[in-house]
């Protein structure tokens, strides 16, 4: 019992020091600046990320159904839902 504590306590202290060092490095390198902007950027759909490669239509334009744009839709198949890429 005592022999294992001689290894586990220094190991725990070293792991804590490594974790503290990683946290301080992340603070110094600016990882926590602009958290709100990072949260908003994940919601923005870039034009290159779209399936059909076309930009989003403006609010005044009529949009085509998903089937014609080539986007995937979910269709029921009995009790199983399958993804159908057109």
Automatic annotation (TrEMBL):
The chain crosses the membrane at residues 6-27. Keywords: Membrane, Transmembrane, Transmembrane helix. It holds the Pfam family FixS. Residues 47-86 are annotated as: Disordered. InterPro entries: Cyt_oxidase_maturation_cbb3. PANTHER family: FIXS PROTEIN (PTHR41532). This is Cbb3-type cytochrome oxidase maturation protein. It comes from Aquamicrobium lusatiense.
């Amino acid at each position: 019992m005592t022999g294992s504590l001689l290894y586990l306590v220094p190991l725990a202290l070293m792991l804590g020091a490594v974790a503290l060092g990683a946290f301080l490095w992340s603070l110094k390198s600016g990882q926590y600046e602009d958290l709100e902007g990072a949260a908003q950027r994940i919601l923005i759909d870039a034009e290159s990320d779209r399936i059909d490669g076309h930009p989003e239509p403006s609010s005044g334009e009529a949009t085509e159904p998903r089937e014609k744009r080539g986007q995937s839709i979910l269709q029921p198949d009995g009790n199983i839902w399958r993804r159908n890429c057109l």
